[in-house]
Design brief:
Shape: globular
Radius of gyration: 11 Å
Strand content: 15-25%
Number of strands: 3
C-alpha cells in the first residue's frame, strides 16, 4: 500500500500489532524513511522471500 506521494504510512505498520511485537527488528531493518511519517522497503518482497526472512 502506498500514498499519492509514495511510501507506507508508519502508522499503518504500527497497527500491525502482532507483526510489530514479534518481528520488530526485522520490520525496522527492512524499511527506511522517505519523509516524515512514511517509509519504503529497502529491498523487494521477492528478495526478502529469497533470504527466508518472510514466506
Amino acid at each position: 500500500m502506498g500514498t499519492y506521494w509514495g511510501g507506507i504510512p508508519e502508522c499503518n505498520l504500527d497497527r500491525l500489532s502482532v507483526l510489530s511485537s514479534t518481528t520488530k527488528k526485522l520490520l525496522d531493518d527492512s524499511v527506511e524513511q522517505v519523509r516524515p511519517g512514511y517509509v519504503k522497503l529497502k529491498v523487494s518482497i521477492d528478495d526478502l522471500k529469497k533470504t527466508g526472512s518472510i514466506k
